[in-house]
Amino acid sequence: MACMLRQTIRSLPTACKISSRSISCSSHLQSPAVQAKTKKTLAKPGVKNVVIVDGVRTPFLLSGTTYADLMPHDLARTALQGLLQRTNVPREVVDYIVYGTVIQEVKTSNVAREAALGAGFSDKTPAHTVTMACISSNQAMTTGVGLIASGQCDVIVAGGVEFMSDVPIRHSRKMRKTMLSLNKAKTLGQRLSVISRIRPNYLAPELPAVAEFSTSESMGHSADRLAAAFSVSRVEQDEYALRSHTLAKKAQDAGLLSDIIPYKVPGRETVEKDNGIRPSSMEQMTKLKPAFIKPHGTVTAANSSFLTDGASAVLIMSEEKALAMGYKPKAYLRDFVYVSQDPKDQLLLGPAYATPKVLERAGLTLADIDVFEFHEAFSGQILSNLKAMDSDWFAQNYMGRKAKVGAPALDKFNMWGGSLSLGHPFGATGCRLVMAAAHRLKKEGGQYGLVAACAAGGQGHGMIVELYPQ
């Protein structure tokens, strides 16, 4: 498929291609003032309105930095405590807690429960953990939406956490089997017999790999091939990454990243902001060598998201309950979809598939969306998705659609930075996307936001966020 995509997309009309000039940072630093609109609401008869009251996150930090000596539940607990402090919601009002994570700490396999207990929630409050790769906290939120919409609950806390500073490293399988046999041995002779079978290669550890189990291919390798298939150049990728870091820095300096809560790390300093935002220059970025496909690949460390530690949490309620408790919600959580496709050649195309589906469910068009917040795994991934969305050929041949949905205007797209610059704790990013959409809608005077993300396994998510009436 990659070869077919590459050959066909290169022959697409120029209008379907996104030029490197269109992603220049300088022309998109200022968020345009969006005029307040009078579009219809997406409320549906007989369906409960679900609102997001507020959300917080710890600063997202490069793995191996200030959070290095913590555990995942420390970050998750801090996010939960921060949410309680910001919203003043009584702990006993919360009906259920759902958390997303990807690489689980074996000591806290249900990190939602451990973090909830650590944050002071009652041991009578159920909590469970979900995992869906990079859309794990998206799944946590929509699980909460379902619980509320079905009448099971009125108040949900959802969130996510990832801690890449201390990922589990296992003994080899042969060594694990030997150790289990040793544990069962009852006599000294039996133990010595088991130990005598150990060979030097048994001692080699199994390191976790950010790779697809079904294809044995790293995500970066897939991103490189995807960029090649859609003819996304190295220059375009570097320019987009520079745009992300520049916009994130501008948003950080302007105090727009208001979902961040300070975190006093025990024995260390108080962390107040993301530390991966590093605007560079095209000259510096071009010096970096390909990270995955060498020597001719185009994906580098500079145009990829980095390994990140962080946690997030949001308070979700039925609108009726929120108003009864005196809250002014941020936004409605409206229609959402999950998609899944080929995990090899289409691993990172989740947004391209999810966007038209969620728009159709909501009865909207691309032009109705005021704010776009897409997960940035790689510059090449983002730009490939935009090209796929703007291609009639791709829509007809791969999506079974009559026509393209179109590509979002970049002056509405990730205007406060994205995962490339802010960081990407796998299990926590979804909540950040939703809160960014809600805050941007309020600041820019828009009504509808569209959140979308890709995930390992060839999956993806899309959701419509509607600003709560001001």
Automatic annotation (TrEMBL):
It comes from the Eukaryota. Residues 327-466 form the Thiolase C-terminal domain. InterPro entries: Thiolase (IPR002155), Thiolase-like (IPR016039), Thiolase_acyl_enz_int_AS (IPR020615), Thiolase_AS (IPR020610), Thiolase_C (IPR020617), Thiolase_CS (IPR020613), Thiolase_N (IPR020616). Its EC number is 2.3.1.155, 2.3.1.16. The keyword Acyltransferase applies. It catalyses: octanoyl-CoA + acetyl-CoA = 3-oxodecanoyl-CoA + CoA; hexanoyl-CoA + acetyl-CoA = 3-oxooctanoyl-CoA + CoA; dodecanoyl-CoA + acetyl-CoA = 3-oxotetradecanoyl-CoA + CoA; an acyl-CoA + acetyl-CoA = a 3-oxoacyl-CoA + CoA. Its main location: endoplasmic reticulum. It is an enzyme of class 2 (transferase). Keywords: Acetylation, Acyltransferase, Endoplasmic reticulum, Fatty acid metabolism, Lipid metabolism, Membrane, Mitochondrion, Mitochondrion inner membrane, Mitochondrion outer membrane, Transferase, Transit peptide. It holds the Pfam family Thiolase_N. It is found in: Endoplasmic reticulum; Mitochondrion inner membrane; Mitochondrion outer membrane. GO terms for molecular function: acetyl-CoA C-acetyltransferase activity; acetyl-CoA C-myristoyltransferase activity. Pathway: Lipid metabolism; fatty acid beta-oxidation. CDD domains: thiolase (cd00751). Belongs to the thiolase-like superfamily. Thiolase family. Mitochondrial trifunctional enzyme catalyzes the last three of the four reactions of the mitochondrial beta-oxidation pathway. The mitochondrial beta-oxidation pathway is the major energy-producing process in tissues and is performed through four consecutive reactions breaking down fatty acids into acetyl-CoA. Among the enzymes involved in this pathway, the trifunctional enzyme exhibits specificity for long-chain fatty acids. Heterotetramer of 2 alpha/HADHA and 2 beta/HADHB subunits; forms the mitochondrial trifunctional enzyme. Also purified as higher order heterooligomers including a 4 alpha/HADHA and 4 beta/HADHB heterooligomer which physiological significance remains unclear. The mitochondrial trifunctional enzyme interacts with MTLN. Interacts with RSAD2/viperin. This is Trifunctional enzyme subunit beta, mitochondrial. The lineage of its organism: Eukaryota, Metazoa, Chordata, Craniata, Vertebrata.
